[in-house]
Structure formats: C-alpha cells, structure tokens
Specification:
Blueprint lengths: L1 H21 L6 E3 L3 H5 L4 E2 L2 E2 L2 H10 L6 E3 L1 H10 L14 H19 L5
Parallel strand pairs: 1-4
Antiparallel strand pairs: 2-3
C-alpha cells in the first residue's frame, strides 16, 4: 500500500511538472509534515521513519532541478524549543501560529532559492 501511495504521488508530481513545462510555468515544491512527524520522540524506529515521505519527494525534485523545501526539520526544531503548538488540537491542520510560521519559512526560502533562479 505504501509503495502504491508513493507511486501515485510521484506520478501526480510528474503530471504537474509536465503541465508547468507545457505552459512555461516554473515549479517549486514544499512539503508540509504531519503533526506526528513534527512531534515524534524519535526520528526513526524499526517500522517508521518520519522523514521518508519527504525523501521520496526530494528524490523526485532534485535530479529535475525543481526547487524543493521540506519544512520538517525547521518545524521539529521549533516544536522542541517553543511552547506554542503549531497544530489545531485533535486536528491534523496548522493552527494560526503554525500557518504564520510555515508561511514565514516558505517566504524566506522562496526569496532566497526560487526568485534568484528567475533572475
């Protein structure tokens, strides 16, 4: 099941990449981690690796020269150091603080990594 889900995701990314290419649009990819990834006590366990979903996307993006950002490292670091939660309690979505933080990281990355490529 995981292999099927991974392939569906990669196929979808390839479709998006082709569509962007056909229309002269640039593609950049940002992955947002689930709450369980951000707050996991350990990064890996025998049957779980919190970074695996993002690595599949990165393995797709990098060789194609697609700018890629995973917010997992930044949000994990912030979650360990800050007391304010990033997600809605009992819900997998960001709360206002999480949206603000994610937006700041994405905006900074976009200016630094994506805009400079279009110069």
């Amino acid at each position: 099941m995981a292999d099927s889900a991974r392939q569906i995701s990669i196929d979808s990314l390839e479709g998006i990449r082709r569509l962007c290419s056909e229309h002269g649009a640039a593609l950049a990819i940002v992955t947002l981690p689930f709450e369980a990834q951000v707050y996991a006590l350990r990064e890996t366990e025998p049957n779980y690796d919190i970074g695996l979903p993002q690595r599949y996307v990165e393995d797709y993006a990098r060789p194609r020269g697609i700018p890629y950002l995973s917010l997992l490292p930044q949000l994990r670091s912030l979650a360990r150091s800050a007391g304010e939660p990033l997600y809605v309690d009992g819900d997998p979505h960001f709360n206002d603080h999480g949206h603000r933080i994610a937006g700041q990281y994405i905006s900074e990355w976009f200016r630094r990594e994506v805009e400079r490529r279009s110069d």
